[in-house]
């Protein structure tokens, strides 16, 4: 290993060409699977399907097409949803614990897949399994028996969750203090048997769930600092689950316990009132079992109390209170006397909710409310037609083509929960790379075939970037390599060789999760990574040598005051300046490599309005429309801002805070939810953005970018709003979803949307 990169696997003798597969020759090759849909159901285990594709086929005569509105569809549209097996059994894992790239045909019923991985690829450096001898060495007081140890220090050992063997640790019958800090733990086993534990330190790990702590009823002191995926709601859960807790992260826990009591008392009252209202409206003909399930779902959806930041905790408690009420026949609900409530009774109510569906960050821990607030846009009723003020622009003719479910957890076709976050256009206009959950997929937009799939267990991919490298072979010939960089939860950058089908490099870029990354448009080996540790690092990944090994080096470190969500090299001078949309606003850094400083602070902060409140507002969407015009989102509710880089920069002077020169404002959804990424199609002058209802907002901004300031007084309406086509999955209609990211290829032939419900939706543009 050198410069943070672990050695790569040698190129296999046999390589698989990305375009070497043929699509199914007829729809009879697709095996139809009908499974009842269970809303918010947990992912099932033991499912042998490796990838599922929701194939949408257009049936003429089953639906009406509005003139000028091709591509839109309603719940009655003629789409058949079909699940297809890509291969028959779960793929094997390589020496890195990551599944090798898989060649799959999403629709081939024969279940055929080809895999090839190198014998010595990069692997994570982690401590081996614990032993009794090791525990005795690190335990106190010094003794020769595990049963006599009262204090145990296992900090800083690179331990993974699977290294905590319950059979071994349960022999520590008298253990009262346990230090697991500075490891790589994502969860704790549920049956450690440490019933006398009073002090637990789990700082600086990757924990995503605290409900497992209920197994320590005697716990008095707890440390969870440095776990980026825990939220303020998890602090409340801890106070509820552990009745004897006195200190959390070194602070007194009494005020938090009091807050939990008040919340629980009010939630109990509201759920009881909701039960009475629900039962009064219940029809006598409805089945009891279905009515009970409907009540729990409706309570979680409708019972609200407290700020949005606590919604994870309140909905967790609403579910448990609702199920308690059902179990008692509606006659009683246990109110919140926290000190008397047995914690074991609460743990079984909540399935594990680790960091897997939680990218949406705040300045501190990451938090996503499972039941997201929905705001209805007044324009959302428009379906596939122009909605501009004069209606002068012609709507694009977009036809729904494919709906793919290829990022499923444990390959389960029931997984409609995995959030998909990032895309990257491929080597051809019809190829796209997507990431979400533990998988990275390369998809042919024309055929809907998943050309490649890479899986890394325990990873949660947040971002992916594509580059092409010129490699000189041993024979002296030059070849072009297509390389994908993928990163996320673990803070690692995986360099994936697309054609050969293996992970050929691993960069240990950050100690915390990576929110986004991008390659320089002028230097094919220069990669920017932005992390939750509030740093942006510029890497030179280098060109692989004859043994196909990368030797990455760190070029620059850029300090930020908040998490960077989007990275965007300035189009007119990409080697000089980098723009970033951050939790705390839009900022710019000098990235010229001829300057001596290798660690730099923000050069300029851009603001989008006048006044003291103009700074510090989240910018979660950022892209260049052309070499001068920037599209940004998040600084003001319900709008997208178009502004001029050159005019803004010219008026900067020596100021560190500069108001942007606004060219136009675009009307967007009025939702208060964040992290809907916008994109642009510069060749066509288009801006694209999804919303919380599954719609795609399309703007033709060519007339707007040519006008001079000041901008029009009112935001400009979108050229077109593409409605969610409502495909059917597992026997039911997916009527609503959230479109996190939407992108079109350079010629705007294909439009791809990534959703919160594990669906990749692809439209094709029909030329008039």
Automatic annotation (TrEMBL):
<keyword id="KW-0995">Kinetochore</keyword>
<dbReference type="GO" id="GO:0000781">
    <property type="term" value="C:chromosome, telomeric region"/>
</dbReference>
<keyword id="KW-0853">WD repeat</keyword>
<dbReference type="Pfam" id="PF23211">
    <property type="entry name" value="LRR_LRWD1"/>
</dbReference>
<dbReference type="InterPro" id="IPR056363">
    <property type="entry name" value="LRR_LRWD1_dom"/>
</dbReference>
<dbReference type="InterPro" id="IPR036322">
    <property type="entry name" value="WD40_repeat_dom_sf"/>
</dbReference>
<feature type="repeat" description="WD">
    <location>
        <begin position="507"/>
        <end position="541"/>
    </location>
</feature>
<protein>
    <recommendedName>
        <fullName>Leucine-rich repeat and WD repeat-containing protein 1</fullName>
    </recommendedName>
</protein>
<dbReference type="GO" id="GO:0005813">
    <property type="term" value="C:centrosome"/>
</dbReference>
<feature type="domain" description="Leucine-rich repeat and WD repeat-containing protein 1 WD">
    <location>
        <begin position="389"/>
        <end position="764"/>
    </location>
</feature>
<keyword id="KW-0677">Repeat</keyword>
<keyword id="KW-0963">Cytoplasm</keyword>
<keyword id="KW-0539">Nucleus</keyword>
<comment type="function">
    <text>Required for G1/S transition. Recruits and stabilizes the origin recognition complex (ORC) onto chromatin during G1 to establish pre-replication complex (preRC) and to heterochromatic sites in post-replicated cells. Binds a combination of DNA and histone methylation repressive marks on heterochromatin. Binds histone H3 and H4 trimethylation marks H3K9me3, H3K27me3 and H4K20me3 in a cooperative manner with DNA methylation. Required for silencing of major satellite repeats. May be important ORC2, ORC3 and ORC4 stability.</text>
</comment>
<feature type="domain" description="Leucine-rich repeat and WD repeat-containing protein 1 LRR">
    <location>
        <begin position="133"/>
        <end position="321"/>
    </location>
</feature>
<feature type="region of interest" description="Disordered">
    <location>
        <begin position="343"/>
        <end position="370"/>
    </location>
</feature>
<keyword id="KW-0206">Cytoskeleton</keyword>
<dbReference type="InterPro" id="IPR056160">
    <property type="entry name" value="WD_LRWD1"/>
</dbReference>
<comment type="similarity">
    <text>Belongs to the LRWD1 family.</text>
</comment>
<keyword id="KW-0137">Centromere</keyword>
<dbReference type="Pfam" id="PF23215">
    <property type="entry name" value="WD_LRWD1"/>
</dbReference>
<keyword id="KW-0433">Leucine-rich repeat</keyword>
<dbReference type="GO" id="GO:0003682">
    <property type="term" value="F:chromatin binding"/>
</dbReference>
<keyword id="KW-0158">Chromosome</keyword>
<dbReference type="InterPro" id="IPR003591">
    <property type="entry name" value="Leu-rich_rpt_typical-subtyp"/>
</dbReference>
<dbReference type="InterPro" id="IPR019775">
    <property type="entry name" value="WD40_repeat_CS"/>
</dbReference>
<keyword id="KW-0779">Telomere</keyword>
<dbReference type="GO" id="GO:0071169">
    <property type="term" value="P:establishment of protein localization to chromatin"/>
</dbReference>
<dbReference type="GO" id="GO:0000776">
    <property type="term" value="C:kinetochore"/>
</dbReference>
<dbReference type="InterPro" id="IPR001680">
    <property type="entry name" value="WD40_rpt"/>
</dbReference>
<dbReference type="InterPro" id="IPR032675">
    <property type="entry name" value="LRR_dom_sf"/>
</dbReference>
<dbReference type="GO" id="GO:0006260">
    <property type="term" value="P:DNA replication"/>
</dbReference>
<dbReference type="InterPro" id="IPR015943">
    <property type="entry name" value="WD40/YVTN_repeat-like_dom_sf"/>
</dbReference>
<comment type="subunit">
    <text>Integral component of the ORC complex. Directly interacts with CDT1, GMNN and ORC2. Interacts with ORC2 only when non-ubiquitinated; this interaction prevents LRWD1 ubiquitination and degradation. Some of these interactions are regulated in a cell-cycle dependent manner. Interaction with ORC1 occurs predominantly during G1. Association with phosphorylated ORC1 during mitosis is not efficient. Interaction with CDT1 occurs during G1 phase, as well as during mitosis with phosphorylated CDT1. Interaction with GMNN occurs from G1/S to mitosis.</text>
</comment>
<keyword id="KW-0156">Chromatin regulator</keyword>
<dbReference type="GO" id="GO:0005664">
    <property type="term" value="C:nuclear origin of replication recognition complex"/>
</dbReference>
<dbReference type="GO" id="GO:0006325">
    <property type="term" value="P:chromatin organization"/>
</dbReference>
<dbReference type="InterPro" id="IPR052489">
    <property type="entry name" value="LRWD1"/>
</dbReference>
<feature type="region of interest" description="Disordered">
    <location>
        <begin position="85"/>
        <end position="104"/>
    </location>
</feature>
<keyword id="KW-0235">DNA replication</keyword>
<dbReference type="InterPro" id="IPR001611">
    <property type="entry name" value="Leu-rich_rpt"/>
</dbReference>
């Amino acid at each position: 290993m050198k410069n943070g990169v672990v050695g790569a696997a040698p190129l296999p003798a046999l390589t698989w060409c990305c375009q070497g597969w043929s699509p199914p020759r007829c729809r009879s090759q697709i095996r139809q699977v009908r499974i009842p849909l269970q809303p918010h159901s947990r992912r099932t285990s033991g499912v042998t399907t490796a990838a599922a594709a929701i194939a949408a086929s257009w049936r003429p005569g089953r639906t009406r097409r509005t003139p000028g509105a091709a591509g839109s569809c309603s719940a009655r549209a003629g789409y058949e949803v079909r699940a297809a097996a890509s291969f028959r059994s779960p793929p094997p894992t390589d020496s890195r614990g990551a599944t090798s790239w898989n060649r799959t045909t999403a629709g081939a019923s024969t279940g055929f897949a080809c895999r090839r991985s190198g014998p010595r690829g990069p692997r994570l450096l982690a401590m081996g399994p614990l032993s009794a001898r090791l525990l005795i060495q690190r335990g106190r007081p010094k003794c020769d028996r595990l049963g006599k140890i009262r204090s145990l220090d296992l900090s800083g050992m690179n331990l993974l969750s699977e290294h905590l063997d319950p059979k071994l640790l349960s022999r520590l019958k008298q253990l009262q203090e346990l230090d697991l800090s500075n490891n790589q733990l994502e969860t704790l086993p549920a049956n450690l048997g440490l019933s006398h534990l009073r002090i637990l330190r789990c700082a600086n790990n990757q924990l995503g769930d605290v409900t497992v702590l209920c197994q320590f009823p005697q716990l008095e002191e707890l440390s969870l600092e440095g776990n980026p995926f825990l939220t303020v709601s998890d602090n409340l859960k801890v106070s509820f689950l552990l009745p004897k807790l006195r200190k959390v992260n070194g602070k007194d826990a009494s005020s938090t316990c009091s807050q939990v009591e008040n919340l629980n008392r009010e939630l109990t009252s509201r759920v009881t009132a909701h039960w009475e209202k629900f039962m009064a409206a219940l029809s006598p003909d409805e089945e009891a079992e279905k009515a009970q399930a409907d009540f729990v779902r409706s309570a979680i959806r409708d019972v609200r109390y407290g700020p949005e930041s606590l919604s994870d905790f309140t909905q967790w408690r609403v579910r448990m209170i609702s199920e308690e009420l059902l179990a008692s026949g509606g006659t009683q609900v246990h109110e919140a006397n926290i000190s008397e409530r047995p914690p074991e009774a609460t743990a079984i109510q909540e399935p594990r909710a680790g960091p897997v569906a939680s990218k949406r960050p705040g300045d501190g821990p990451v938090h996503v409310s499972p039941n997201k607030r929905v705001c209805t846009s007044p324009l959302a009723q428009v379906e596939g037609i122009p909605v501009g003020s004069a209606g002068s622009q012609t709507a694009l003719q977009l036809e729904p083509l494919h709906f793919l479910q290829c990022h499923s957890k444990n390959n389960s076709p029931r997984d409609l929960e995995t959030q998909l976050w990032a895309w990257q256009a491929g080597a051809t206009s019809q190829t796209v790379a997507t990431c979400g959950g533990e998988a990275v997929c390369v998809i042919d937009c024309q055929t809907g075939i998943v050309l490649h799939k890479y899986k890394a267990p325990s990873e949660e991919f947040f971002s992916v970037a594509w580059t092409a490298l010129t490699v000189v072979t041993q024979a002296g010939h030059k070849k072009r390599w297509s390389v994908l960089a993928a990163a996320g939860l673990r803070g690692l950058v995986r360099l994936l060789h697309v054609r050969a089908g293996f992970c050929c490099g691993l960069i240990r870029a950050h100690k915390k999760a990576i929110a986004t990354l991008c390659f320089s448009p002028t230097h094919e080996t220069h990669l920017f990574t932005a992390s939750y540790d509030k740093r942006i690092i510029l890497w030179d990944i280098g060109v692989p040598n004859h043994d196909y090994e990368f030797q990455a080096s760190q070029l620059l470190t850029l300090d930020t005051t908040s998490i960077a969500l989007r990275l965007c090299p300035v189009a007119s001078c990409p080697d000089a300046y980098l723009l970033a949309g951050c939790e705390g606003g839009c900022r710019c850094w000098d990235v010229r490599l001829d300057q001596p400083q290798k660690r730099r602070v923000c050069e300029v902060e851009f603001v989008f309005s006048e006044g003291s409140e103009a700074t510090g507002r989240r910018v979660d969407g950022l892209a260049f429309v052309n070499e001068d015009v920037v599209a940004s989102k998040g600084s003001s509710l319900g709008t997208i801002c178009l502004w001029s880089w050159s005019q803004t920069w010219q008026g900067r002077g020596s100021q560190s805070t500069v108001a942007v020169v606004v060219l136009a404002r675009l009307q967007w959804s009025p939702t208060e939810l964040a992290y809907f990424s916008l994109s642009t199609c510069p060749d066509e002058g288009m801006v694209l953005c999804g919303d919380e209802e599954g719609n795609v907002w399309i703007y033709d901004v060519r007339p707007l970018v040519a006008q001079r300031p000041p901008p029009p007084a009112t935001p400009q309406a979108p050229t077109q709003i593409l409605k969610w086509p409502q495909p059917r999955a597992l026997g039911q209609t997916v009527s609503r979803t959230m479109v996190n990211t939407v992108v079109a290829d350079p010629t705007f032939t294909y439009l791809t949307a990534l959703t919160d419900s594990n669906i990749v939706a692809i439209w094709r543009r029909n030329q008039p």
